[in-house]
Structure formats: structure tokens, C-alpha cells
């Protein structure tokens, strides 16, 4: 996997990348480069992103992987980043369902792909199935060649 240099290019951010910033054992060069790129770029997320983040944190707390103080600090830290929520998820519901049917992705992952297609932006994800579906739909993978 070749990672491009940090360019000023907006992109779609998924939960897998975001949570890699929270858990040290999930950090990759790619996730770190995506984080660093936010100095010059903006990330866009579907409405479901916030709920996915909260869900991962909740389960991590239950498994004692993270404590409340660290969870709160992490949430505050990502609130300060240039991450913008898409308000058109309701409008995109039918399209997201169709994408999920065609790609065999979950609705949640299909929602990221739908947003990337609609906004014509590259996608940052660690999810292998989502990466494959993005490539099949001619969606660029952010910072990857």
C-alpha cells in the first residue's frame, strides 16, 4: 500500500479510521496520515458516523478497553477537527439501500460509499469490503494510489 503525501483534498471519513485514532493498537501509518491531513483538508461524514463512534466507545468501556475519562477526552478532541456532518442522509436513504443491495455492504458502510459518490470525494477507510466496493464504483481511496 502506497500512501500519498498530505495534500489539501477533502474526503469522506469512516468510523474505522476515526477509532484507530482512539486505540493505540489500531493505529496504522494510513490512519495517522489521514489524521495529519486534517491540517489542510476537511472530512465529511454521514449522520450515522456519530452513532457508530458512540457505539464503539460504549462497547470498549464495557470491555474495559477505555475508561470514561479517556472516552470523553477523545470525543472532545474529534469535535475540534474539521469534520462536517452531511444532513442529506434522509434524502439518500433509497440510494444507500440500493448500494447496499448491489455491493453486499451493510447499510452503515453503504452510507459512507453513497456520500463519497454523491459528493465526489475520496474515501478514507480501513474496512476491506468498503475499500473493494469503493474501487468497484470508481471512488478513489483517500491518500492511496
Description:
The chain is an alpha/beta fold and 145 residues long. The protein has one domain: Rossmann fold (3-Layer(aba) Sandwich). Helix content is 52%, strand content 8%. The chain contains 7 helices and 4 strands, in the order E-H-H-E-H-H-E-H-H-E-H. Strands 3-2-1-4 form a 4-stranded parallel beta sheet.
Q: CATH architecture, please?
A: 3-Layer(aba) Sandwich
Sheet-strand content, in percent, reads 5-15%
Largest sheet entry: 4 strands, parallel
Arrangement of strands in the largest sheet? 3-2-1-4
Structural class, judged by helices and strands?
A: alpha/beta
Radius of gyration over all CA atoms, rounded: 15 Å
Q: What is the residue-mean pLDDT, rounded to a whole number?
A: 92
Low-confidence stretches: none
CATH topology: Rossmann fold
Overall form: globular
The CATH class: Alpha Beta
What's the N-to-C terminus distance? 8 Å
Provide the domain count: 1
Percentage of residues in helical conformation: 40-55%
Number of helices: 7
Taken in chain order, the helices and strands follow as EHHEHHEHHEH
Amino acid at each position: 500500500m502506497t500512501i500519498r503525501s498530505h495534500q489539501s483534498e477533502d474526503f469522506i471519513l469512516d468510523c474505522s479510521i476515526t477509532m484507530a485514532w482512539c486505540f493505540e493498537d489500531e493505529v496504522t501509518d494510513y490512519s495517522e496520515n489521514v489524521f495529519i491531513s486534517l491540517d489542510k483538508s476537511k472530512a465529511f461524514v454521514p449522520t450515522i458516523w456519530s452513532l457508530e463512534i458512540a457505539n464503539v466507545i460504549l462497547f470498549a468501556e464495557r470491555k474495559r478497553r477505555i475508561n470514561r475519562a479517556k472516552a470523553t477526552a477523545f470525543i472532545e478532541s474529534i469535535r475540534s477537527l474539521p469534520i462536517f456532518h452531511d444532513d442529506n442522509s434522509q434524502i439518500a436513504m433509497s440510494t444507500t439501500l440500493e448500494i447496499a443491495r448491489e455491493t453486499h455492504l451493510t447499510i452503515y458502510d453503504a452510507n459512507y460509499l453513497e456520500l463519497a459518490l454523491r459528493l465526489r470525494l475520496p474515501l478514507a477507510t480501513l474496512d476491506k469490503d468498503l475499500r473493494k466496493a469503493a474501487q468497484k464504483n470508481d471512488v478513489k481511496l483517500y491518500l492511496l494510489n
